[in-house]
Design brief:
Elements (H helix, E strand, L loop, with lengths): L1 E4 L5 E4 L6 H16 L3 E10 L4 E12 L3 E3 L1 H11 L2 H21 L6 E4 L2 H4 L4 H12 L6 E5 L8 H13 L3 E7 L5 H7 L4 E4 L1 H4 L6 H16 L3 E4 L5 H9 L4 E2 L8 E2 H11 L16
Parallel strand pairs: 4-6, 6-7, 7-8, 8-9, 9-10, 10-11
Antiparallel strand pairs: 1-2, 3-4, 3-11, 3-12, 4-5
Bound molecules: ligand C2E and magnesium ion (MG) (3 copies).
């Protein structure tokens, strides 16, 4: 395999050079073992409203391979999906996230957590019931869990997907539509999916402050979502100017490195405590020097 080092000096597994089967199989076996050994971690990234209040956290899976270093989630999620390991990974993520939510609640931190689920999960028989049972086992109310899905859930057997999603929302779990705008015929999907939140994909947010067309796409998406009664979250907000544009366009919440990158659980606890009831405050832009 090929590895390069990222800015922090940790090796990053590079996928493009080794899509050969034995290697993928090796990685798959390693992932299976890592899940059993609980070596896969969750990091949490805040979603904040424009008044600074923390709207929730998104759980993002992190895997540091003992020899290869950090393996990007996109990479091993694709492997898990094409191999049948996905339900196992999702169980692990849900179990870890709900355990963490329960712990935070016992410490007086009532913050909802969003978990990403793959189309594979939504098509697993009994998925809605197993999520409800897991919530009950952890003593976590359904309203403290959100599931992020993508339009891809409708590609195969849309009726089954719709039934599962209806089951989940019936239990009180909130659904969020992730990466909105990158899929195929988004408007139809928006009507068919029982979601209460829409996340505008980073690819539209990134150049929002410079690109007139991206700004128009975001404006229309926000208006459309609001007219359907959905909350809108922008992902990948990295700078002040983008924050201000999104606020002016009426977006409800943002996520991105401007606020915080995904952090390990302990760091997240400290982050939440430090913000207290005031929420996150945007660092003041540098003021011109006084005369
Ligand atoms: P996503 O759910 O759309 O997550 C957003 C991705 O953008 C995350 O990448 C996050 O770290 C990154 N990000 C957040 N803020 C910024 C920013 O300001 N700038 C930039 N450039 N990037 C930002 P990550 O953690 O690498 O995850 C990639 C994708 O992997 C996720 O996209 C999600 O689709 C998938 N994923 C992650 N964890 C899980 C999981 O537990 N289960 C499943 N099924 N998929 C997961
Ligand atoms: Mg997501
Ligand atoms: Mg996304
Ligand atoms: Mg994404």
């Amino acid at each position: 395999y090929q590895a390069k080092r990222d800015r922090t000096g940790v090796e990053v597994y590079e996928s493009k050079r080794d899509s050969n089967t034995p290697d993928r199989l090796g990685l798959l076996g390693d992932l299976r073992r890592a899940l059993d050994a609980q070596e896969v971690e969750l990091h949490y990234q805040p979603k904040v409203r424009f008044d600074g209040q923390v709207a929730g956290l998104e759980a993002l899976v992190r895997w540091v391979h003992p020899e290869r270093g950090k393996v990007p989630p996109d990479e091993f999620i694709a492997i898990a999906e094409s191999s049948g390991l996905m339900p196992h990974l999702t169980e692990y993520v849900l179990e870890t996230a709900l355990g963490q939510v329960a712990q935070w609640r016992s410490q007086g931190l009532y913050v909802p957590v969003a978990v990403n689920v793959s189309p594979r999960d939504v098509h697993t028989p009994g998925f809605a019931g197993s999520v409800a049972a897991r919530l009950a086992r952890h003593g976590v109310p359904a309203g403290a869990l959100q599931l992020e899905i993508t339009e891809h859930v409708l590609l195969e057997d849309p009726q089954r997907a719709a039934d599962t999603l209806a089951g989940l929302t019936g239990h009180g779990v909130k659904m969020s539509l992730d990466d909105f705008g990158t899929g195929y015929s988004s408007l139809v999907h928006l009507r068919r999916l029982p979601v209460s939140e829409l996340k505008i994909d980073r690819s539209f947010v990134a150049r929002l402050a410079f690109d007139v067309e991206d700004a128009e796409i975001v404006r229309c998406t926000v208006d459309l979502a609001h007219s359907l009664g959905l909350l809108v979250v922008a992902e990948g907000v990295e700078d002040d100017e983008t924050w201000e544009r999104l606020r002016d366009l009426g977006c409800d919440a943002v996520q991105g490195w401007l606020v915080a990158a995904a952090m390990p659980a302990e760091e997240t606890t400290a982050w939440l405590r430090a913000r207290g009831s005031r929420g996150w405050q945007r660092p003041r832009a540098a003021l011109p020097a006084a005369e």
